């Protein structure tokens, strides 16, 4: 199967497992990836998701073998926006673990995740223009993450860039000397957060503020904050803090 699924403790790991195809985004891979995200979302034991890979390539982008002589309305790319939006709006933290090359659509997956960690073996490239196509779909999650000048340069040139530069421009959170240890550390930290508060925080930070006045934004955020301060979960968290113990939801 092109995607594996495993749960250890509170962390679900979804692994792109088609190394012979450079983990290209085929219709089958996209379908399975969406199914496993749904599985993780509905499992109350899962508190966070790691998006990982086998082989030397995290993801090479769209499966180019499936696009030749296919009309626009039947292109596999049509399923990709729904998947990226699902990751972006997912109720649980999603961490991208990158230990190899990421190209084109693979960078879209990384940008859609909440946290992105990589080893120094990772490198990246927006290869679309060199293939005669446009990085249109992935621009939606990429533009809020990456510095505007860097996006222009890298999308127009298609140049390969290392993990260190990916951190500098905002695509990655960090380059890790011990990637597995750092991925595990983040999973433990996510496990300390109250699930509803984590989901609300994700949605709050990703909200669309276009056309909203400062007063309207403050009013909406005050209502959100007050609801959570008045919740049983907040009462438990504050009591645990006062009693110097872990709250009931913490691992």
What kind of oligomer do you see? single chain
Write down the overall mean pLDDT.
95
The description of the largest β-sheet is: 6 strands, mixed
What is the SS-derived class? Answer: alpha/beta
CATH class of the largest domain: Alpha Beta
Order of helices and strands: EEHEEHEEHEEHHEHEHHHH
Commentary on this structure:
The chain has 251 residues and is α/β, with parallel strands linked by helices. The protein has 2 domains: 3-190, 2-enoyl-CoA Hydratase, Chain A, domain 1, CATH 3.90.226; 195-243, no CATH class. Helices cover 44% and strands 16% of the residues. The protein has a 6-stranded mixed β-sheet with strand order 1-2-3-5-7-10, with helices on both faces. Helix 1 (27-42) packs parallel to helix 2 (80-88) and helix 3 runs parallel beside helix 4 (136-145). The radius of gyration is 19 Å and the shape is globular. The model has no long low-confidence stretch (mean pLDDT 95).
Q: What is the strand and helix layout of this fold?
A:
Elements: E1 3-8, E2 11-16, H1 27-42, E3 48-53, E4 57-59, H2 80-88, E5 94-98, E6 101-103, H3 105-112, E7 115-118, E8 123-125, H4 136-145, H5 148-157, E9 161-162, H6 163-169, E10 174-175, H7 179-190, H8 195-205, H9 214-229, H10 232-243
Parallel strand pairs: 2-3, 3-5, 4-6, 5-7, 6-8, 7-10
Antiparallel strand pairs: 1-2, 8-9
């Amino acid at each position: 199967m092109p995607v594996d699924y495993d749960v250890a403790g509170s962390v679900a790991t979804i692994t792109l497992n088609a190394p012979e195809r450079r983990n290209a985004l085929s219709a089958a891979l996209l379908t399975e990836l969406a199914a496993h995200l749904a599985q993780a979302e509905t499992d109350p034991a899962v508190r966070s998701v790691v998006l990982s890979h086998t082989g030397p390539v995290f993801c090479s982008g769209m499966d180019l073998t499936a696009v030749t002589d296919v009309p626009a309305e039947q292109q596999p790319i049509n399923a990709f926006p729904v998947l990226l939006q699902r990751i972006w709006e997912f109720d649980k933290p999603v961490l991208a673990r990158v230990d190899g090359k990421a190209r084109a659509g693979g960078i879209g997956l990384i940008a859609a995740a909440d946290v992105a960690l990589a080893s120094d073996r990772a490198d990246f490239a927006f290869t679309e223009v060199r293939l005669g196509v446009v990085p249109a779909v992935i621009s939606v999650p990429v533009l809020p993450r990456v510095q505007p000048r860097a996006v222009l340069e890298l999308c127009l040139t298609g140049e390969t860039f290392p993990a260190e530069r990916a951190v500098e421009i905002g695509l990655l959170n960090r380059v890790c000397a011990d990637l597995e240890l750092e991925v595990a550390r983040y999973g433990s930290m996510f496990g300390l957060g109250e699930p509803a508060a984590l989901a609300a925080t994700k949605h709050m930070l990703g909200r669309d503020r276009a056309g909203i006045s400062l007063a309207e934004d403050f009013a909406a955020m005050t209502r959100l904050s007050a609801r959570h301060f008045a919740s049983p979960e907040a009462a438990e968290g504050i009591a645990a803090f006062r009693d110097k113990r872990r709250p009931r939801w913490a691992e």
